[in-house]
Amino acid sequence: MEKKWTMPWEERPEGCQDVMWRYSQNPVIGRYHIPTSNSIFNSAVVPFGEGFAGVFRCDNRAVQMNIFAGFSRDGIHWEIEHEPIRFQPGNTEMIESEYKYDPRVCWIEDRYWITWCNGYYGPTIGIAYTFDFKEFFQCENAFLPFNRNGVLFPEKINGKFAMLSRPSDSGHTPFGDIYISYSPDMKYWGEHRHVMGPTPFPVSAWQCTKIGAGSVPFLTEEGWLMFYHGVITTCNGFRYSMGAAILDKDDPSKVLYRTQPYLLAPAALYELTGDVPNVVFPCAALHDGDRVAVYYGAADTVVGMAFGYLSEIIEFTKKNSVI
């Protein structure tokens, strides 16, 4: 697609030595951004037209979980629809859903694909597509319950659609590995392969309880770069942080590098306090040349943004890797 958009960006603050840094005006989307919302977080953004479009998790004040479309000219100031997305049947008539949350969005070939955690007798991976972020067509769920964190690759791998996911349970899962699955048609999924799991506590404790795919991976000279979340169980509960992994270009089930230190962990007030304290949860990443912008959910309450240079992130991941 011809590039017509300008990626949001802010230079590294003076004196900052971190590989990635927070946007100084975080959070970019507050919890009460639309009239009915209790919280807006764990949301996905893609370039669209001369600006950006997104699918946003907006829990209402009954704490019903649903996803909403939104648009922005600059990727920072957002107009989010006040009503949730109404899906039409896509490759199935079965579009039942008890709840929807934690969406990701991905352009593949001729349309935008949305994945989310879909409530169908437990959490599974919902799939839909749109051409314009006005009409949305829901497809078959990818898997049986229980599964979360479904993240598509932006192009086919060896002629097949590819998706990362994290099999789970019905509650606040105290375990979790990342798997990859393939489909010829976005309806039937198989060839499930293990990608990576939590690290041993003495090796890298921030990701020792469970992990999950975060942003849609994008291809670099080193392989597929993916931001992911890792969780440690502390005496105060789960703590979510963000790392990066580089996967093999032709076989993404092979992890080439993976950050031993985190790239971003809860430290700002809006990450430490909220409906679920101590959470940094990446769901989308934009890149333009050497610049990267990551959108992440903070404390299950608001949306934050962080920046970094692609070359520095790759170098850091390779030099500080644990497989």
Brief overview, please?
This protein is mainly beta and about 325 residues long.
What does this structure look like?
- It is a single chain.
- It is globular, with a radius of gyration of 18 Å.
- A 5-stranded mixed beta sheet has the order 6-10-9-8-7, with no helix packed on it. Strands 15, 16, 17, 18 and 19 form a 5-stranded antiparallel beta sheet that branches. Strands 1-22-21-20 form a 4-stranded antiparallel beta sheet.
- The model has no long low-confidence stretch (mean pLDDT 97).
- It starts with 19 loop residues before the first strand and ends with a helix.
- It contains 2 helices and 22 strands.
Give the neighbour order of strands across the main sheet.
6-10-9-8-7
Q: Could you name the ranges where pLDDT drops below 50 across 5 or more consecutive residues? A: none
Overall number of strands:
22
Rg of Cα set: 18 Å
The share of residues in helices is under 10%
